Amino acid sequence: MIATSTDCLSLDELNRLVEGQLTDAQFDSASKHVDQCEHCQSKLSSNSRLPNSAATFQPPDDSILAESACQFAVARLMSADISQSFRIPIEQIGPYEILGQLGQGGMGMVCLARHNRLKRQCAIKLLPPHRVTEAGWLDRFDREMTTIAALEHPGIVRATDAGTDSGWHYLVMEYLDGMDVGKIAHRLGKLPVADACEITRQAAEALSHVHGSELIHRDIKPSNLMLTRDGTVKLLDLGLVLAGDDPLATDDRLTTVGHLMGTLPAMSPEQLLDSRRVQPASDIYSLGATLYRLISGNWPHANEGGLAARVLAITSESKRSTPPPLRSLAPSVEPELESLVHQMMHRQPEQRPSGTEVADRMTTMCHDANLKALLKRALSTPSSERASTPSLLATIDPPSNDLSRRDLGWFAPLGWFAAAALLATAVIQIKMNDGSVIVTSDGKDTQVEIVESDSVNAANADSTTTSPIPSEKIYLGENLDHWMGVFRREQEIERIGQAMRAVELLSRDTSRRAEAARITLEMANQYGSRIIDETPDGGNDSFGGHSHPNHRFMGYLTQTYPNYFPTPGLDALGETLVDGNQQAVTAAILLLNNYLSGVYVSTVYPERQDAAEEFLRSNGRTPSGRAQIETLLQQLGVASKTLEPLASQATAKDPYHSSPAGDAMHSQQLAWGTAVRLIEEAGPRIEPPAWIAEYVQTQVEKAVTLYRERPIDQETGTTLWTYTEQTGFYGGIGGGFGGSPQVVTTPDTPDWLLPNELFHAAVEMQREGRLMMPIEFAVETIAHPRFNWYPSDDQSVQDVVDALQASDQDAPTRIAFHLDRFLQEIDAKYQQTNNADYASTLTYLRTRLEKGFEDIYVTHVEDPTQAFDRLARLVNMMFQAPSFANSTHTDQAIWSRMQIALEKRFQNDKQADNAAE
């Protein structure tokens, strides 16, 4: 006879509980009692019969393993018969194909699925047939189905279908691509205040909708908030109940395995004291505790003194019940935010703000939030700080032969197991006496496989023969050779992407790592591109539907290949630069440039950039390291020549409107820029290969030839500017996509205009006497509004002017002429069209003016009086232009200084003329 929920358990009953020797009914009753009984918890902690028992395990505060019911459940799972199957029991339900398991709990399992005809991925929650016959389960499942279906809000996971098939009840929900906020906090620690506030603001808006439907969530915590790749926060685990309802009264099992109806550190005092007193304000308390946790890195009530002490701290009115002020843990928090968090966690529910009020008050606290970047940073950060590159194979040793498999002596290592299970990609093997439980996951697909050991199979044939369990690592049930074979036979991009992840994971710390890097890059010969779909698993183009397969391939490649850097990634990449076709070369150049720049999934990570720079500096100090870098430089030169035939066909517009020729032109330039950066980072002992200077010489010669063939305005004898480059369609009179083209007020980019980096290199080579640019070409380039000017590390505007002036003393006057010619051009366009947006193009010159052209213009312009009048008119126009409506006073400073300087020069010239007379 087991103790009831109100009677304390005997020592023997406690031992039977943790050893998994109770029946289902006894286990449910006993675990519920221990969850609430400080006396039984203290006996469990002091139980000498189990020196390595769950009582000694100290999981992280955030871990679900911190809940005793979950610890007992895991203990039972670990001690279960190895012959039990964990495979997904069905392959098809209704019109949905089951692709894999996403998670499992007391209510059944959640699977990744795909609609047979629509080919759209979704998540399906399955209630097994045996649950249907048990009291309360079907009612609760139906409650969840109808509740989610009735809630339409962007912050709530959306239900799309439901039904019954072959005894299985199922609920179809949208598939969310992202990461729950609990995992994000686990990986990143304290979150930026603005990001934490934006997460909370969106969650508060969703909760406001929930509460408006007279429902209560009951379990708000970081892991029940999902951050998707588009920056949206979604509420998860919507086992919602009506206000005033008490689901615990219908089925005691809802408090034990599978559903605790709340998570202790985030629960409000009234929810802990009496679940029937839960109300919308209880969710607000939990949301405030969640925000406290995200900002400070700690729950409001620390896990000190055990479960009972924490419960008392939350529910009592002692000094311990007041958590440390948020600003004491996070000094950057503003007083207004600290006050709001305090109100959200007020002990009296009626004193807490509503979800709508929380969302409104937090609006001003989220201006600097960037949830997309936060998610990308979390996805690229290892989940355990103890190992930046965790082992792929976690082995939990089996108990000694003289102990029963049900002994919990090997439960203590579960802390490592829990940490490994949080990895976005993991391969975990739990060895047992008669086989292994193998868990594999890539963050999307999860598989649990039972493998009998050779010793068990051999024992069936010969009881005297044993052999060890194979140690080969597998991913989703397959080994490295299998996944490498996928590359050779697979055409579906998603499958190729999965193989990329598998090969990278399984080759870690093996002799086949270089082979894995090479075979990954080989696929770029077929699918390489300059364009990247950063969400390849569900990437869509602007008008719906999947993006181009090559773009999705590049998404997978840029997410996976950086893990091979620097070794053997650079060696394999160098081989591709030499042996690959134009597509592979394009991909390899992009990967190398991203590595040097610290770019991962479109975000720059300074730590990645620092690591790359340190690697190059270190190699630059040794002969062998310098040889490796110089070889890579030569390989980049070969790649540049591979791209030359196609790149030579590109026009000025091609790089901005992706075309094969434009992509080749862009990649060729990127190869040159990457080579220059390699030399800069590796140090002065690296000998630049001849092709780097030859490339500059060739590009300047091409540009000068095109410049001499440019169209000339017959009236002025100057370069003819055109305005035909349309960039998109806007509403206009027709509205939507049916509107008119936007009026282009900026001159087209001429095909002779050099990129900034090449122009700087050409000026430096001219200074050294290795190249000569025609002065008219050089000054018109640097003064053209479409020239994308920014100073290089070694050259300022004045340095460039000095270099040009060395070959022509009139260089400053020529520059002032072309600047004034631009002002005349836009003034004339305004007079013709009365379109003030023409004047806004003055901003194209701002940087150059501030860095030195301001003085050149006001000093050398031919007629300062006309220049003053024209500039005053244009500046007045500019601040009337719709495109410049949000200008600040700072934006006007440069123009005011120029007008004052021109007026002063005009007065000085006038005085000089009077004196001469």
Automatic annotation (TrEMBL):
The keyword Nucleotide-binding applies. InterPro entries: Kinase-like_dom_sf, Prot_kinase_dom, Protein_kinase_ATP_BS, Ser/Thr_kinase_AS. CDD domains: STKc_PknB_like. Residues 96-365 form the Protein kinase domain. SUPFAM superfamilies: Protein kinase-like (PK-like) (SSF56112). It holds the Pfam family Pkinase. It comes from the Bacteria. ATP binds at residue 125. Keywords: ATP-binding, Kinase, Nucleotide-binding, Serine/threonine-protein kinase, Transferase. One of its GO terms (molecular function) is protein serine/threonine kinase activity. This is Serine/threonine protein kinase.
